[in-house]
Amino acid sequence: MNPASVAALPPRLKLTITAAAETAVRGGHPWVFANSVRTQSRAAPAGELAVIYDRRDKFLAVGLYDPDSPLRVRVLHAGQPAALDHAWWRDRFRSALARREGIADAQTNGLRLINGESDGWPGLVLDRYDTTLVLKLYTAAWWPWLERVTALVRDGLKPERMVLRLSRNIQDTAGAQRLRDGQLLLGSPVQAPPTFLESGIRFEADVLRGQKTGFFLDQRENRRRVETFAAGADVLNGFSFSGGFSLYAARGGAKSVTDLDISLHALAAAERNFKLNLAHPEVARCAHSVLQVDAFGWIERATASQFDMVIVDPPSLAKRESERAGAIQAYGKLAANGIRLLRPRGVLVAASCSAHVSAEEFFSTVRGAARNSSRRFEELGTAGHAADHASTFAEAQYLKCIYLRFA
Q1: In 3-state terms, what secondary structure has residue 88?
Q2: Mean pLDDT over residues 151-162, rounded?
């Protein structure tokens, strides 16, 4: 680079933040909110590296700047100064992969490889579905870095293909970058939904248009546990999506499985997933039916005592803090209605993906519904995040599940 080019570079973007925000960043929190920024040296575009200094003008952290987001800086590195060069990015990528060692095997090749902030990649997720990878971005701050990320994935994993998915909040600005949701970044085009294995069960992933990155990989451990309770059971899977819990229940020896979902697209995927697994004798024997309904209303009106297992795993009921109280009330009502449908010795599996409802609040609500049912019950266990979805800060701790058996 010649001296004239160096002179043309703008000075590094420098921020100072409030005392409370300094404390949070020092404690490992990955977000700096817009209202925590005290001073800023100049305007900057999304994706520029912002260097944060403390009150003594010492280096505190560096992160991705986004002028249009309330999350003004997403922290990449804090502590001692570091050069974010190719070696730094490569090592950060390899570290995330190393945390997943032992999860994939001959029976499981669907898993999360990078889990956003909790792996040091704020606002970025990378999921694997066998030889297809899906990169999902939640912030426009990754636009300038997309080529670097793509090269790291290509050189480090050599996938058959990688698809780009974009959260709704950045899809409008993606066009200016010549990017779109569902775009192919690497490899051969997607001709049909790719399939992958999870615990020996084959699923398809709608990587181009499906929710999240095409499948709910975060419920793997809970699906495995459902299988252990399913022998001889009539199972109701409310909010079934593409039938993940249902297939595990079927392989576990369930007599019947009924899927409820408001989406015909999801129910059709569930039926295809069952067909993919008919080589399992237990799946072939299980009576599988689907109902396109509002699961909340159907469960509330259904005849009591007709199932041996009821699974209620609704979409997030609290996308913002203002919805938390209403969500807690709705979870309690849903649990109470699910309990009413259980036969003696029946099992309720209740899950929540609402980050604004804590695990303590959710578990207490479901236990309260159990006590109010006047039925004796035992708690079989609770669960949180799977190893490949580990969370390192409070706002990332969204997933919780509880198992109760009723007399």
Answers
A1: helix
A2: 97
Give the residue among 328, 358, 341, 264 at the shortest CA–CA distance from 298.
341
The edge-to-edge listing of strands for the beta sheet with 71-78 is 31-33, 71-78, 59-65, 49-53, 13-17, 37-40
**Cα angle 275, 205, 247; round to 5:** 40
Task: List all residues 6 or more positions away from 178 whose beta carbon is below 8 Å from its beta carbon.
Answer: none
pLDDT of 8: 55
Over residues 216-239, the pLDDT tens digits come to: 999 999 999 999 999 999 999 999
> What CA–CA distance (Å, rounded) separates 337 from 348?
10
Tens digits of residue pLDDT in 60-105: 999 999 999 999 999 999 999 999 999 999 999 999 999 999 999 9
CATH of 3-78, picked from 2.40.50.1020, 2.30.130.10, 3.30.230.10, 3.10.129.10, is 2.30.130.10
Q: Contact, 236 vs 309, CB < 8 A?
A: yes
As a whole number, mean pLDDT of residues 175-201 equals 96
The CATH classification of domain 216-406, taken from the options 1.10.10.10, 3.40.50.1100, 3.40.190.10, 3.40.50.150: 3.40.50.150
Q: Where in the chain is the domain with CATH 3.40.50.150?
A: 216-406
Kindly give the pairing relationship between strand 201-204 and strand 234-238: unpaired
The structure's pTM equals: 0.94
